[in-house]
Specification:
Number of strands: 0
Helix content: 55-70%
Distance between the termini: 98 Å
Strand content: under 5%
Shape: flat
Amino acid sequence: MVLWGPVVLAVLVAVVALMRVRSLARRLDLLNQSYWELRYDYTRLRSSVARLDPDQADAEPESPPAAAQPPSVSFVPLASLKRKE
């Protein structure tokens, strides 16, 4: 008879936890959906702005110009550094 108390309490805690997890899953799903809608709208607006002002779209490259330059240090094989006697 004494064991029923903790069992009922554990079942109640499990039900509350399950309800909380379902609520959080719904909120996460809504947040994920909102993120993708915002991303879609941003891309659509960016493309429409690029159509309206194509000169500005060409002036702002997607990647930084420093990344396009080749590295200043190149590979030097050790065989070329050997002294010939």
